[in-house]
Design goal:
287 residues; mainly alpha; Peroxidase, domain 1; Peroxidase, domain 2; three-stranded antiparallel beta sheet; two-stranded parallel ribbon; binds protoporphyrin IX containing FE; binds 2,3-dihydrobenzo[h][1,6]naphthyridin-4(1H)-one
Length: 287
Amino acid sequence: GVHVAEKEAKRDYQEVYNAIATKIRDEDEYDNYIGYGPVLVRLAWHSSGTFDRNDNSGGSFGGTYRFKKEMNDPSNKGLQNAFDFLRPIHEQFPWISSGDLYTLGGVTAVQEMMGPKIPWRSGRVDQPENTVPDNGRLPDASQGASYVRNLFDRLGFGDRETVALIGAHALGKTHYENSGYEGPWGPSPNVFTNDFFVNLLNAHWTLNTNKKGVKQWDNDQGHMMLPTDMALVKDPKYRKLVEEYAKDQDVFFRDFSKAFAKLLENNIKFPDQNKPHYFKTLDEQDL
Ligand code: HEM
Ligand SMILES: O=C1CCNc2c1cnc1ccccc21
């Protein structure tokens, strides 16, 4: 059922943001100097993406990713790196819940990679191991547009929100050992831009079977797309949105911010007194 967030504690959440942001800045060598930003965004998404609006199960509230049943979901392979990154932050701020920490990690990463401001509310409360949702709720990358539309409908999202959210694939890369997909990363995998949409439309893509026997799209500049990425330009309704975001990064930023905030808050009711935080970046604080 829907969870009610606890009343906001008298805590300095900007301090937690700054600790995460400083650690992202310091530990820049991770994953061939891509850094921890992208994998932190993926942890926030995967810890929220278990939501099912049909029975109000799953979602970020209980911080259930910390339990091995969810951590070992094959869809979550590779996210241990983000979990290990956040461990010392959690030791420094033991009062923050796991659910608040995983989602705050993603918000911090998007903003520090020059993405849009993401409003964030506190109050998620750790839940016990017997509340861990079943594996298999996160999307399968080998599928097409109708699968993507159904999966995001289950999460409570329409076409515009779906295309905006998948625009996060401007960040980071795929890894053979995690998902069976592999691709050299894009020109700026740790800067949040609308490049993903521009790439989708402008490059010449060919479908190959990679050395793990997995089908993926590759282009002549050595970039790759997942089948579910390519579905966004094959489906006429999604394609219209890809074209809109490729043309206007500000509209993409606006829609991404709204959809990502909604994703991180699915299945949670927040008390009115829990106002959304708009955190300052390190640069904005001259830190
Ligand atoms: C149809 C929906 C989606 C599918 C099938 C999908 C699938 C994948 C796959 C297979 C990877 C590669 C994982 C690896 O090999 O390490 C990946 C990476 C990533 N995904 Fe998605 N994803 C989807 C939607 C999203 C959404 C909604 C977000 C965030 C809002 C997101 C953020 C990311 C990020 C940031 C990475 C890079 C992680 C890294 O570099 O370590 N994805 N995704
Ligand atoms: O076109 C890009 C830029 C670099 N990262 C990705 C792209 C496309 N699809 C992806 C899918 C998952 C993770 C990263 C990417």
